[in-house]
Amino acid sequence: MAKPSLSLINLIIFIIVTSSLPSLQSKPLPRFLGKLSRSSPPNSERRHQHSKPIQYETRYFPQNLDHFSFSDTPKFQQRYLVNSENWVGPQRHGPIFLYCGNEGDIVWFAENTGFVWELAPRFGAMVLFPEHRYYGESMPFGSEEEAYKNASTLSFLTAEQALADFAVLITELKRNWSAEGCPVVLFGGSYGGMLAAWMRLKYPHIAIGALASSAPILQFEDIVPTETFYDIVSNDFRRESSSCFNTIKESWDALMTIGQKQNGLLELTKTFHLCRELKKTEDLADWLESAYSYLAMVNYPYGSEFMMPLPGHPIREVCRRIDGCPDGTSTLERVFEGISVYYNYSGNADCFELEDTSDVGTDGWNWQACTEMVMPMSSSRDRSMFKTYDYNFSSFQDWCWKELNAKPRPTWITTEFGGHDIKATLKNFGSNIIFSNGLLDPWSGGSVLQNISQSIVALVTEEGAHHIDLRFSTKGDPDWLVEQRESEIKLIQGWLDEFYQEKKAAFDM
Amino acid sequence: MAKPSLSLINLIIFIIVTSSLPSLQSKPLPRFLGKLSRSSPPNSERRHQHSKPIQYETRYFPQNLDHFSFSDTPKFQQRYLVNSENWVGPQRHGPIFLYCGNEGDIVWFAENTGFVWELAPRFGAMVLFPEHRYYGESMPFGSEEEAYKNASTLSFLTAEQALADFAVLITELKRNWSAEGCPVVLFGGSYGGMLAAWMRLKYPHIAIGALASSAPILQFEDIVPTETFYDIVSNDFRRESSSCFNTIKESWDALMTIGQKQNGLLELTKTFHLCRELKKTEDLADWLESAYSYLAMVNYPYGSEFMMPLPGHPIREVCRRIDGCPDGTSTLERVFEGISVYYNYSGNADCFELEDTSDVGTDGWNWQACTEMVMPMSSSRDRSMFKTYDYNFSSFQDWCWKELNAKPRPTWITTEFGGHDIKATLKNFGSNIIFSNGLLDPWSGGSVLQNISQSIVALVTEEGAHHIDLRFSTKGDPDWLVEQRESEIKLIQGWLDEFYQEKKAAFDM
Q1: Is the ipTM of this complex over 0.95?
Q2: Which of B343, B258, B268, B262 is closest to B307 using CA atoms?
Q3: What is the pTM of this model?
Q4: Average pLDDT estimate for B327-339
Q5: Is B241 marked active-site?
Q6: pLDDT by residue (tens digit) across A359-397?
Q7: Using the beta-carbon criterion (under 8 Å), do B158 and A416 form an inter-chain contact?
Q8: A-chain residues within 8 Å CB-CB of B407?
């Protein structure tokens, strides 16, 4: 298996600088945490954040590149992490907990999904973390370079193929382990949560249930309002401080005004302590916007290093700094103070690198967003603290073609997986899915926030952010989080109890 | 749209001679009625069989060749037949009845699925018959010749792609008709029934229910015994006459013995009135075996011309002739008398053409059977009237590679669609599927014959054959058939009632 090459520079850029998509209608495409995708196997330094180290074996499984046609494509090696130390084994029908790998290195997701590891001993479960194709080490065509070469080599990077990978893998592994009678429970967060929910719906014969955390399966077409995402980010700031919200909302005009002045770009470069002279004001705007969105996602009540080292309630800290500047501090200086919480909480950075958008290359999530995962977003005039903008599919489409030779199919996901009228569709169809969400998370707006049926349920917390329930428990966990996890455990236990009862009934017959 | 070229010879061969696969472990691969696939748009003569002519418009829809990757493949024109004369329209949420086209010309299936046409006025329903890709006129790459050129061009002929075709088509049509609120009910027989059931399971957001008639979704891997199919065919003969069963069972040895004699092939040629001298005894054996299997499928209680012009209870007639020969008639002469019911009920044929197996070329079902639709079959020593043989995947695989450059994936269908433990899987998952079967039909052995849940139900008739319930009603319909159809209508009405009630409830909220 070829391993993606990782230069030190890449790592440093990753740690110090978040990245943004090439300017798109002067707006970065909101993304999950996917920029971690290709270039960031956790380094040893970042591993120290885990109070409880995880243990697993790394294995590889030869997968068909194309499950849905019989064209003569080469197989690829799918990486998966496995831990069976707590498994009670096939004879006792020990459960298998499968985390649906998302758009990034699976090791990173494994390390950031402590809930599954903590549950395994309690349930006597096997733990499996299969990696998503085209991420981490699971590269078709032998290497990252070949896999990401062009639209043709990338064409098999789809959610349906990834789900089929999981289905084939677990079916084969169970056969090898003589574990056909063992129930599989799916877990997933963010895009991985979408995969978990979809997998339960499409492959009920393979998994008895799914915990889909922060899974915005409704963030497509016209199912939810396009403003939802940025409205929630904005609310997260406004609830901390309306003056903070207003400062940020005013900053975009200030930015543009200065950017258009003579030597304005140089002025901005200084104000924001950039390592290189700013080329376009939009690059700086994107850099700021990304940070606000990520801050909303990881707005956890305790300090974390999920994306960046951050304090607890990081938006509160951003606003404390923005609001706390001495009188006379300019809007942009305030914004810089605030954003430093995100980009430089450790205080070690002397200057900041904006990723060179001309050199961003193709990353996996860009491809997915430009093909299937077309999530329309806009920024509303009144409720959003971001620049106002409308969703414009046409310019999005043009960008995808120009950058990636990709042709978006904006109605495909809802055709393949549904979404419209989800309550009517699933009220009498399907079972055993938990949609868990925290309302601080901007992705919660596109997720399922109401119970659909007795066993397709929504667990919603007011104070939660992006799939916080999947993280390792900490001493600082608030009560609502402890309770949320207990509810999840009870539901999963219920699925397993039902499975074993039916197994027993069939056996007794 | 290029239309498949049809020579008169092809048509004559089709009408007079059933076809068989190239000899495979000296056994034809059992098939549905799929040999009708490419070369048999119904000719005007055959149309006369319909008491009630059907009316429809023929339209074409541009489909993506590959729904599950974003490779740059050309679109193709999918043909579909549509009739809206009875539709009460979108404002009244008129239902849409969609027949899942199977492995053949859609016109032929439309003409042989009278039930849907008879139901439409009763339900105020739109009728849609989309054609399955790679059959009839729905040819990728512009022509049948190009579509069937090689394994690469054929590679997109899969059930998953066909289901996605249906999903995309109906979604687009509903949008065009402003009929998003109209419920879709699926129908399908045989392979089309498998597609209907799978479509309801995989696309619950697209269709509210499915009538899957004679759909052997369990005829894969080890889910049902491999002998099931030929055991049922054999039982169909034995129940008419044990001497008839015995004569056929003895005939294989007689055939081989004579075939091995000097001038034996010539003798067989004469006994069976073949137009050309027999080249291999196996070709004749295949020709006979095919006929017995098809006779079991179309063992209807009234005269039909579904495959061939046949009397009612055709197996009874075969056995009457076999048993009725004067004393001293040889086993093979008896068999010839019997088989003539199938191949020459009109009495017009002077001699019989065995299809030249060296020239059979690729047909669609061969490809599907050699890729996904791997249905293991064997013939048991005691219960079967056919030659004993075991299932041999290895030689099957070799044949597929040699003939079609196809690599079977024998565990793929159950991975993608399930099948093992179907009752446990679907007891608390899914709804609104009818599996209807007649126990005379050899495909019933691989179908669902027991209720799975309150709304995934099995309707089984003792005397029914291959999807007889989907045929036009006739004056000769026995009571059990009338009742079976009434049960189906009640269930479908129930699905629609529930849909409208929920629609109303949502509207009243």
Answers
A1: no
A2: B343
A3: 0.92
A4: 97
A5: no
A6: 444 589 999 999 999 999 999 999 999 999 999 999 999
A7: no
A8: 70
